[in-house]
Amino acid sequence: MSTSDRLTKRARTRCIFTGEPFAYAKHAVQRCSPRRPIPAATNSQAVIESQIMKHLCKGGEWWAHPVGVQRVVINSDRIELVLDDHTVTAGGRQHFMSTYVADHLLPFAEADGQVIGPIGLRVAAIASSDLHLKIVGTDSRVVLRASKGTDWRQLLAERYLLCRTEGLIPLWQEASLTVYEKRDLSTYSHLRDEDRKLSWIGSGILRRIALLYTSSTAYSTRSWIADGQWKFELDTSYLVPLDHDSLIERLTDPRWGPGFVVSRHHCSCHLASLRDPSHDLTCTYYLGNVKAPNLGKMQIRFRSMARGYEDGIRQELEKVDGDSKWLERVLPKCDGMDSRSSDR
Fold first, then answer.
1. What is the pLDDT of residue 270?
2. Cα dist. 4→8, 27, 290 in Å?
């Protein structure tokens, strides 16, 4: 294989992981080490990426892409997240993705002083439809690129006024760590330590966010942190063969993955032929750090959902402009599917 062919192959592989445009990926892999074609974030950069992943991926909404992120563009000093235009809640309400981001990421303190949102997250700049975020006192940077015409300044001003009206204290414009955040760090130190310990997982997945779209049969992805693990739950229609091998193989790839190794797993695929279609089928994988097992684990539950669970979900995903080819792959139409909404 010629040098040009190898470069093209690496660029295409990177696109599968990140969703970046091919031309950008081709230029990026030329600058990266062949051993680490997707560079890892460190220190405060890993923390901010991990916190964004944590707060955007809680579930309860429908997106055209997992977590509402079309693709990630990785630069030397920051990452850019290209957002979907809209999100739909489980109750059927449609919102701009920019509104969803503001609701879930911008930190504020409640009347009793408890902080809601990522500690220390600040708005660093606004440029057109780009919202620049950082961790206060650091050079970290994540850029959120919303749909064309998004007015972040007006959105943030409205949210600031809403917080004040409801007796809440906006923190995203403060120049330093506030007394509320310092108190939170002290009171919930074990939870904050857990978040930092798992930051390599959140950042590593965010930098490979396209895998949840390109290498998964799931139509729904959500995650949360509990019991010292970052837990993911991926739901697949009962009409689609449950494929977890593609995603696991890429996550554990020694060059392209974030450093995962499978520590153990429980697979129920052998029961598929005996399955009662009214019950879920679940395969669970536990992934740790290949070099440092004590850094915490990621648990991924691949669920083949019971018949009827996804009734109405395809319609919700069509509302947010889910790609027709993707929808046909993860939620094919069949006789008997109705338009009823489904709770998550």
1. 78
2. 6, 12, 31
User: Which residue in the block uniquely carries the two structure tokens 């691949």?
Assistant: 302
How many CB atoms within 10 Å of residue 282?
15
Place of tokens 């290949």: 290
Exposure b/e, 291-329, CB count within 10 A at least 16 = b:
eeeeebbbbbbbbbbeeebbebbbbbbeebebeeeebee
CB–CB of 233/222 below 8 Å?
yes
| Predicted pLDDT at 335 | 57
Under a CB-based contact definition with an 8 Å cutoff, are residues 320 and 87 in contact?
A: yes
Q: What is the pLDDT of residue 75?
A: 92
Per-residue model confidence (pLDDT) at position 271: 76
Residues of the chain with pLDDT under 50: 337-344
Tokens of 103: 């609701």
- Other residues' Cβ atoms within 10 Å of the Cβ of residue 13: 18
Query: Could you tell me the strand order of the sheet in which 260-266 lies?
Result: 220-226, 229-236, 297-304, 281-289, 260-266
Chain-centroid distance, C-alpha 5: 31
DSSP 54-93: HHH-S-SEE-SSGGGEEEEEE-SS-EEEEE-SEEEETTS-
Tell me 197's DSSP state: H
pTM higher than 0.90 for the full model? Answer: yes
Q: Exposed/middle/buried for 89, CB within 10 Å: 0-12, 13-18, 19+?
A: middle
Of 49, 59, 48, 85, the C-alpha closest to 70 is 85
DSSP for 98-128 reads: HHHHHHHHS-EE-TTS-EES-TTEEEEEEET
Q: How far apart are CA 3 and CA 298, in angstroms?
A: 36
E strand or H helix that includes residue 135? strand 130-135
